[in-house]
């Protein structure tokens, strides 16, 4: 295992966020082979003895080998990429800021959409969830402008023709009416670019807001935009089963301390 900067190692292992690890190093609380570390110190967890407050981290290699799974509420205005050449806020920027470096997004949400985004370093699960043969439901709550008529919902379920081929919702229903439109729920099993928006446009609706609230067994719940939480062991097991994988994967790594409250506050307001 190549040597890495200490703050990155501690963050990847779920011991502390990168910022907190840097503070520990600056305060002289971290040693490598008995010597106080400084910012910029690199270490190999397989060969070097890393300690915090004099207590060796003997399980560090095992922690680093675990996979990490995070449920993130992507806010509007953030691109679902690791870096953005246009300088817009990206998921990658967010991960590096809160000590989740090394994770990647599973699938995409366009810059104007928000909601549930799975972040992980589990390549096997990523491939399974994004492969067309594993039909995992993705549930969207959409605020639309236009008449909420049964025939429009029926068209979504029966299928509409888009410029890249036909598209059909597995389910579509009205959640709440509002003046001039309202909230509808759309369930898909595929994830083409801006598909929900294009399907709504095809039936005569303008999309005002779009929030993904579920992917398979995962639920966004009341997690506020810009915030995140680690998946539980039961959620990882259920997600692997939904993706057609063995449920007996590794126990998920603990999330780094600090940082899970980064971002906005409040409810996303679905159905209000």
Describe the model.
This is Pseudouridine synthase. Residues 4-61 form the RNA-binding S4 domain. Belongs to the pseudouridine synthase RsuA family. It holds the Pfam family S4. Keywords: Isomerase, RNA-binding. The chain has 272 residues and is an alpha+beta fold. It folds into three domains: 4-65, Structural Genomics Hypothetical 15.5 Kd Protein In mrcA-pckA Intergenic Region, Chain A (Roll); 69-132 and 216-242, Alpha-Beta Plaits (2-Layer Sandwich); 138-215, Alpha-Beta Plaits, CATH 3.30.70. Helix content is 24%, strand content 27%. It has helices at 6-12, 18-26, 60-65, 91-97, 123-130, 150-158, 195-202, 233-242; strands spanning 4-5, 30-32, 35-36, 42-43, 50-52, 55-56, 69-74, 104-105, 114-120, 138-145, 160-162, 165-167, 171-178, 181-188, 206-215, 218-219, 228-230. The strands form four sheets. Strands 7, 8, 9, 10, 13, 14, 15, 16 and 17 form a nine-stranded mixed sheet that branches. The protein has a four-stranded antiparallel sheet with strand order 3-2-5-6, with no helix packed on it. The protein has a two-stranded antiparallel sheet with strand order 1-4. Strand 2 (30-32) and strand 3 (35-36) form a beta hairpin. Helix 1 crosses helix 2. The radius of gyration is 21 Å and the shape is elongated. The N and C termini lie far apart (51 Å).
């Amino acid at each position: 295992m190549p040597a890495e900067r200490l703050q990155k190692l501690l963050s990847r292992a779920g011991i502390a966020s990168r910022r907190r690890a840097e503070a520990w190093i600056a305060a002289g609380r971290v040693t490598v082979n008995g010597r106080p570390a400084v910012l910029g110190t690199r270490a190999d967890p397989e060969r070097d003895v890393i300690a915090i407050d004099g207590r060796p981290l003997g399980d560090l290699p095992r922690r680093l080998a675990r996979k990490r799974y995070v449920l993130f509420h992507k806010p509007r205005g953030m691109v679902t990429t690791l870096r953005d050449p246009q300088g817009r806020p990206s998921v990658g920027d967010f991960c590096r800021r809160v000590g989740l470096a090394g994770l990647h997004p599973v699938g995409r949400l366009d810059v104007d959409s928000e909601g549930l985004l799975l972040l992980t370093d589990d390549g096997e699960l990523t491939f399974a969830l994004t492969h067309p043969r594993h039909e995992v439901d993705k549930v969207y709550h959409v605020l639309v402008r236009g008449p909420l008529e049964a025939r429009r919902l029926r068209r979504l379920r029966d299928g509409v023709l888009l410029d890249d081929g036909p598209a059909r919702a597995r389910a579509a229903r009205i959640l709440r009416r509002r003046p001039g439109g309202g909230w509808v729920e759309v369930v898909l099993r595929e994830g083409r670019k801006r598909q929900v928006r294009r399907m709504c446009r095809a039936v005569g609706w303008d999309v005002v807001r779009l929030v993904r609230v579920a992917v398979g067994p995962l639920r966004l719940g009341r997690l506020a935009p810009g915030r995140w939480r680690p998946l539980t062991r039961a959620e990882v097991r259920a997600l692997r089963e939904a993706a057609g994988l063995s449920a007996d994967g590794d126990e998920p790594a603990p999330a780094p301390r600090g940082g899970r409250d980064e971002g906005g506050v409040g409810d996303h307001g679905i159905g209000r």
